[in-house]
Structure formats: structure tokens, C-alpha cells
Design a protein that fits this description.
alpha+beta; SH3 type barrels; 5 strands; 5-stranded antiparallel beta sheet; 103 residues
Length: 103
């Protein structure tokens, strides 16, 4: 996803996100690959997204008491991408898998 598309993405409270920028312009402690949870709906026309990061940040806050102290930090929407929900599959036996492949 390009920066322009990330700026227009709609994020909803509870969405899981990943930080995809080399560095945050406003917080040097955010690193590429860090994950967190969106705390407030963020429609297309809003630039800033409120996030509770999984890892505490040295200068993090609580986003006005909405998350654990030290985990809150807001950043530009173009710095994050929504994580896709992973599909869950039931395990199958070797015979079922072979049959599935048509072997």
C-alpha cells in the first residue's frame, strides 16, 4: 500500500495496525514492524490515528486514560497499515491432504 492510500484508509476502533514507516516524525521510539490497536474511529478525512501500542514507549501516554500508561501514542495515518485478519484452518490428516491435492 502506498503512502497516498494509507492517508485515505479508514481505521476503526479495535483494528490491529502495524507501523510501516522508517521512523516516526514525532517519536523516535516507534520502529518499523511495531503493532498496536486503534483506539478511536479514524475516517478518511482525519490524519491522526490514536493507538495503544503493544510495547510501551519511553515517552508514551494513556491517550487520556483510554489505554495503559506508556502505551499510547498518536501518529499519522500514512505511517500505519491495517493488519489483515489471518484465516484459521482446521488440521487435516496426511491422507486428506493427499486426496485434496488429487494425488
Amino acid at each position: 500500500m502506498c503512502k497516498y492510500d494509507r492517508e485515505r484508509q479508514v481505521l476503526r476502533k479495535g483494528d490491529r495496525i502495524i507501523f510501516v514507516s522508517d521512523r516516526a516524525e514525532d517519536n523516535g521510539h516507534l520502529k518499523y514492524g511495531m503493532t498496536g490497536t486503534v483506539l478511536r474511529d479514524c475516517p478518511e478525512d482525519i490524519t491522526w490515528v490514536y493507538i495503544a501500542w503493544d510495547e510501551a514507549l519511553p515517552n508514551g501516554h494513556s491517550n487520556d486514560g483510554v489505554c495503559e500508561v506508556g502505551h499510547g501514542w498518536n501518529t499519522n495515518k500514512y505511517s500505519v497499515e491495517k493488519l489483515q485478519e489471518s484465516a484459521e484452518f482446521d488440521a487435516c490428516s496426511d491422507d486428506e491432504f493427499t486426496l485434496f491435492l488429487g494425488l
